[in-house]
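re the bet — no i am not wrong, look at it urself. input seq straight from the record:
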Amino acid sequence: MMYKCPKCKLPMGRAEVGAAGGIGIFKKTGKISAKWSNIHCYVCATCGYIELYAEKPDIFKVDENK
C-alpha cells in the first residue's frame, strides 16, 4: 500500500522502528494475557512526518457490550 504524506502530499517510505527486544503495541485481555501487534512505520523523506500503523488493528476493536 502506498501512503502519502498529509503535509507534503508526497509518497512516504517504509521505515523500521526499533528497540532492544522489539517494539509493538498490545491490548490487555486479562490480568496476565495480552494480544500483541507489530508496528509498521512510514516516513516522509521531505518533511520528516511519521505515521505508525498496527499490523493487526482488529485486535483493538472495542466491545460495546462491556
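see?? Residues 13-60 form one domain. told u. also The chain has a mean pLDDT of 82. so pay up
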